[in-house]
Amino acid sequence: MILPEPKDTDVVQLAALSAVGWAEGLSFRQEDGDYITVMLLAAGLARIRDDRRRMDAGEYLTRTSADQGLLPVPWRSGMTRLWWRFRTAGEIPPQNDLKLFELCRKPFSEWPIRLRLSVADIEQSLLDGDELTPMAEQAARLSVRDVEAELIENLVFRELMLVAELNARDEAEVQTHYCELRRLLIDNPILSEAQVRRLTGRFPKCGGNGQPVLQRFIQAAYVHRAAPGRVKIAVCDRCGNPTQQGVDGCGTVGCSGHPADLVIESVGGYYVQHRATRRFFHDPGLVEARVLDRLAEISTEGTIRVEEWPGLDAYDIRVSFLSGLDVIEVWGADAKDQVSPGLLGLGFSWRPDPPCDRRFLVLPKHRADQPGYVADLTAELQGRASDVSVVSEDAFVASVVARAEEVTGR
Ligand SMILES: [Zn+2]
């Protein structure tokens, strides 16, 4: 099948795209045209959802009068692009917004036109009922207009940095604190009052209002649940996320844990992670934590030195291979747990500082095992970050072990 080339309407649409305001560092190629359309639609859907939430909360929307009654700009731009795509393919385009909403509920593979998306992505849809799918969330997050996600992720990050900085005597200590707090979010979907008290003792510095900044960080990342006395919470025995009653298994993507009881002695209640904290810090951090734990075991032999989230999270893991006191080689790894390999490739960039000799993009097993995922991601990275090797978490750890043995000549 010969696919039609993108038309000159793309110039107009790319202008619309930049007006929407995309995240920095994104670069598009001609063949990414359909990804742009998908991202516009997803960004539009996210805006529609956010607008609805704000109206439900009693807030009036203050758009310009020309915008009144119309759906958001990215949605309309996505629809226009799609209209041209349908026409050039000799198909009848969706006639109105409702028809396009309907289409968004179907996997792309069932659309009347064949979008140029990767094999793994073509089976995804944008809506599941009225909810955004994980693919749509990922696509919308590439746009700076995903208001709710941006706000909460930035707030948690800002408060975390404040705790790390205010409680540190030098830059090295800022980095140590950063890693400790980052790990706290991965290891603790739930915190007891006693844990928060201990943390406040460890990070005692107060902000302008006299309140320890640690407590502000906890308030940003967690929700306090009132539950006096002894409480029993159903959680996953592996990832620690709260589990839903009557549901087998954990519910977290890629986790094979089972429900277990967590018992907490409380005075007033306990803290559970905000939905956004779980989505942006906890769940994607699980693979980072697994790899770091396995490398920590290996590093006890003295053949490697491991740095967590070097350069305040330039990437996730930096491994130095040692021969005696000499550093022979340095590897960097960034672990990513995302639904769409196409979108991951589009948005991926490597921060060069601190430097390393080899670069790896590490995938959790449940993504690496998905048919076509690695091939699609590797293809999407070509010309963008071609020197980055895509590997599974197991393959990465095995490569580190093998290289460490080579370097020490065992
Ligand atoms: Zn789990």
From TrEMBL:
The species this protein was found in: Sphaerisporangium melleum
Which taxonomic lineage is given here? Bacteria, Bacillati, Actinomycetota, Actinomycetes, Streptosporangiales
This protein is called REase associating with pPIWI RE domain-containing protein
Q: In what residue span(s) does the REase associating with pPIWI RE domain sit? A: 285-406
Q: Name one Pfam family in it.
A: pPIWI_RE_REase
This protein's source sits in the domain of life called: Bacteria
